[in-house]
Write a structure and sequence with these properties.
Number of helices of chain B: 11
Distance between the termini of chain B: 59 Å
Order of helices and strands of chain B: HHHHHEEHHHHEEEEHHE
Largest sheet of chain A: none
Radius of gyration of chain A: 19 Å
Largest interface: A-B, 25 and 25 residues
Order of helices and strands of chain A: HHHHHH
Number of strands of chain A: 0
Structural class of chain A: mainly alpha
Helix content of chain B: 40-55%
Oligomer: heterodimer
Shape of chain A: globular
Largest sheet of chain B: 3 strands, mixed
Strand order of the largest sheet of chain B: 6-5-7
Helix content of chain A: 40-55%
Shape of chain B: globular
Strand content of chain B: 5-15%
Radius of gyration of chain B: 20 Å
Distance between the termini of chain A: 74 Å
C-alpha cells in the first residue's frame, strides 16, 4: 500500500515536471554582438525557399504588417516597412536580432519579439511558454530576407 | 519658493500632452463606417438591406412578449420603447447602484429578467439577447454617445483605459498600438479603424450574424494571442465603458454593418 502510494506520488511528480517542461519551451541560447546575432540559432544556415513561404503564411504574422515583392499575395500590410531590399539594408546578423527581439532597439515598436517565451501578459493557453517562431523558422526567414536585394 | 512652484507647475503641464500621446483628439474621432467601402455603407444605410434590422424586429416582438414567472413583458414596465428607451444605449455601460459597478446593456436586460420578470438570464450572444439589445440600442440611433459621464464611473473608465493601453498576449500588442496609433493603415490589406463602438450590437459580414462588442473585443484578444476574458468579466465591461467614453459625442448607429 505504502509502496503504491510512493509510486503514485512519483508518477504525479514526473507528470508535473513534464507539464512544466512542456509549458516553457527551451530556447537556443544566442550571443548578441554589436547590433546583431552573428551565429545561426540552429548552428546551420536556413532555407530561403522555406523562409519565403513562412513570410507569406499569415500564421507567422509577417505579412499582416509588412508588404514586399510578393505579386501573388493580395493582402499585405502597411504598418511596417516594405521588405523589398531588406537584404541591402541589413546583414543576416542584423536581421536575425531584429526578428529575435526588435524591442531591443525600440521598446515602443509594434514588431513582436519572435524568439522570446516569457515576460508577456495573459498569453493564450495554446501559446504560453512558446516563442512565436522556432529557431529553425527564424533561420529560414533570415535566409530569405537576405536574398531580397534591389 | 514661488519660482520653484511655477517651474514644477510648468513641468507638470508639459508632461500632460505626453501622457495623452496616442489618444485621438475629439474632433478626429471617426466611426468605423468611415473606413468602409461604398457597398457595406449602402447595406447599413438601407433598412431593407441591413441584416441587423431583422434582429431589431425580433427584439420588438420580444419587447411585448410576457415571460418569466412574473408573466411580465418589458413593455409592461417600460411602455413604448420609442420613447422610454430613446438615448438609453448611448449612456451604457451605466453605473448600477445595487451592484456598485457598471453594467452593460446586455447585463441590464438580464438583470431586468431576473429581478422583475423572474425569468432566466439569456446567454451571451444568444439570438434573443442580441435582438433585445439591438432593439433597445436602435432607439438611440443618431443620438450622441455620453457613456462614462457619470462621475461614479470614473475608476472603471480608468480601469478600461489601462487595459486598452496594456500590451498583452504572445504578440505583445495593446489596443492602442493599432486603434490610436495606426488607424487608416492596413493590416493584411484591411483598414484598421479607431475602434469606436458606435453601432453595437452590429452585423459583421465576417460573422454572418449580429454580435456584441464583447465578442469583438474577445476576437481582438485572441488575435494578439492573449487569453480572452470571459463574457461579462469586469475587465470586458471596463473596456467597453472606456471605448464608449472615448467615442463621446459620436452618434449611435445600431444596428451597424461592418466587414
Amino acid at each position: 500500500m505504502a509502496r503504491a502510494l510512493v509510486h503514485i506520488v512519483a508518477l504525479i511528480a514526473a507528470g508535473f515536471a513534464f507539464a512544466c517542461h512542456a509549458g516553457a519551451e527551451e530556447l537556443q541560447p544566442y550571443n548578441i554582438s554589436g547590433d546583431g546575432i552573428a551565429e545561426s540559432l540552429t548552428g546551420s544556415p536556413g532555407d530561403a525557399a522555406r523562409g519565403r513561404a513562412l513570410v507569406l503564411a499569415r500564421t507567422t504574422t509577417c505579412i499582416l504588417c509588412h508588404s514586399g515583392p510578393f505579386p501573388e499575395t493580395r493582402f499585405q500590410g502597411d504598418l511596417a516597412p516594405d521588405l523589398t531590399g531588406a537584404g541591402n539594408r541589413w546583414t543576416a546578423s542584423q536581421l536575425r536580432l531584429r526578428l529575435v527581439d526588435a524591442a531591443r532597439f525600440n521598446p515602443e515598436t509594434i514588431m513582436p519579439s519572435y524568439y522570446r517565451n516569457e515576460g508577456f501578459v495573459r498569453v493564450g493557453r495554446n501559446f504560453a511558454g512558446k516563442p512565436i517562431l522556432s529557431a529553425a523558422e527564424i533561420e529560414d526567414i533570415v535566409a530569405f530576407l537576405a536574398t531580397l536585394r534591389d | 519658493m514661488k519660482f520653484w512652484r511655477a517651474i514644477a507647475a510648468a513641468a507638470l503641464l508639459a508632461t500632460i500632452p505626453a501622457l495623452l500621446a496616442g489618444e485621438i483628439p475629439p474632433d478626429a474621432r471617426r466611426s468605423g463606417y468611415s473606413f468602409m467601402g461604398p457597398d457595406t455603407r449602402a447595406m447599413q444605410d438601407d433598412d431593407t438591406s441591413n441584416p441587423g434590422m431583422l434582429f431589431v424586429l425580433d427584439g420588438e416582438a420580444l419587447w411585448t412578449k410576457r415571460t418569466g414567472s412574473a408573466d411580465k413583458a418589458c413593455a409592461d414596465c417600460h411602455g413604448d420603447a420609442r420613447g422610454s428607451m430613446k438615448g438609453v444605449a448611448a449612456r451604457y455601460p451605466a453605473f448600477d447602484k445595487a451592484l456598485a459597478r457598471p453594467v452593460t446593456l446586455d447585463q441590464r436586460i438580464n438583470l431586468c429578467r431576473s429581478n422583475h420578470q423572474q425569468a432566466t438570464p439569456l446567454p451571451y450572444e444568444s439570438r434573443d439577447l442580441l435582438a433585445l439589445s439591438a432593439f433597445v440600442a436602435h432607439q438611440s440611433r443618431g443620438i450622441a454617445i455620453t457613456a462614462g459621464d457619470d462621475p461614479q464611473l470614473k475608476p472603471f473608465v480608468e480601469q478600461g483605459r489601462h487595459l486598452f493601453m496594456r500590451r498583452e498576449g504572445q504578440l505583445n500588442l495593446a489596443c492602442t498600438n493599432c486603434h490610436d496609433d495606426n488607424f487608416d493603415k492596413r493590416l493584411a490589406g484591411a483598414p484598421i479603424t479607431q475602434g469606436q463602438p458606435t453601432g453595437y450590437p452590429l452585423y459583421r459580414l465576417e460573422w454572418q450574424t449580429l454580435g456584441s462588442l464583447e465578442r469583438r473585443l474577445r476576437s481582438c484578444m485572441t488575435g494578439v494571442r492573449a487569453q480572452a476574458y470571459d463574457y461579462g468579466a469586469p475587465e470586458l465591461v471596463a473596456l467597453e465603458l472606456y471605448l464608449m467614453s472615448r467615442a463621446h459625442g459620436l452618434p449611435m448607429e445600431t444596428p451597424a454593418v461592418r466587414p
